[in-house]
Amino acid sequence: NAGVTQTPKFQVLKTGQSMTLQCAQDMNHEYMSWYRQDPGMGLRLIHYSVGAGITDQGEVPNGYNVSRSTTEDFPLRLLSAAPSQTSVYFCASSYGAGGMNTGELFFGEGSRLTVL
Amino acid sequence: GEDVEQSLFLSVREGDSSVINCTYTDSSSTYLYWYKQEPGAGLQLLTYIFSNMDMKQDQRLTVLLNKKDKHLSLRIADTQTGDSAIYFCAESIRAGGFKTIFGAGTRLFVKA
User: What is d(CA A32, CA A68) in angstroms, rounded to the nearest whole number?
Assistant: First the structure.
């Protein structure tokens, strides 16, 4: 089982460059989300999606875009990278609100981004 | 808005019990979770508790929920060196894990 797959695992960017972090899940999950993890601050929610074609902002959405054209994929785009976006990014998915779903989030292994 | 707070570090001796504490602010939180993160990896769900429960036990893990004080704790009995990791408290006010909010994480050190 692949679960949640993130690419790339590591990336170095220069200030002002753009890039896309890829996230794919093969569990037919309705819900997908992106978090960033910074020391002492835990995980902060960037954007989330409750299904294909539907996205919404989390706690820290500025500087990031997302789209959800398929159930499987949820890419995160950095439009113009800044040093403040240096972080570890995690994609997570969940079955969604139906039935007895506990709301467990399934995480990818993370993408470590450095912006110089 | 929602906020989750937990202490950043805990050190225990192997074989002792570990207790990690967490407070949350949103009284409408329906689901509360403990996730574990090992070095270089993503988070994995350890256990969860619904807001209509006071306690949940799962092998070495005991979760206590005090809704009045908005306090959640995780007790790990007979702590092993393999339990060394970061433990995150998290809350969600909706079903399905939507907009789950995490604390800063408690780094547990287990001394042999």
Answer: 9
* Test mutation, B9, B23, B43, B44, chain A, max A CBs within 10 A: B43
> Quick check: B42 and A4 CB within 8 A?
yes
Q: Least CB-CB distance to B96: which of A4, A44, A103?
A: A103
Look up residue B76 and give its two tokens: 């790990």
* Alpha carbon distance B83, A3 (integer Å): 24
Interchain pair A94, B97: CB under 8 A = yes
What are the tens digits of pLDDT across the range A31-62? Answer: 999 999 998 888 999 999 999 999 999 999 99
Cβ partners under 8 Å of residue B87, min gap 6: B20, B34, B35, B36, B37, B46, B74, B105, B106, B108
**Residue A53 region, left (φ>0) first, then alpha (ψ -120 to 50), else beta?**
left
Q: In this structure, are residues B105 and B85 in contact, taking their beta carbons and an 8 Å threshold?
A: no
Instruction: Render pLDDT for A54-103 as a digit per residue (tens, 0 to 9).
Output: 999 999 999 999 999 999 999 999 999 999 999 999 999 998 766 567 78
Residues of B in contact with A35 (CB under 8 A): 102
Taking contacts as CB-CB distances below 8 angstroms, the residues of chain B near A102 are 31, 48
Token pair recorded at residue B25 = 């602010």
**Whole-number Cα distances in Å, B29 to A4, B4, B71, B72:** 26, 11, 12, 12
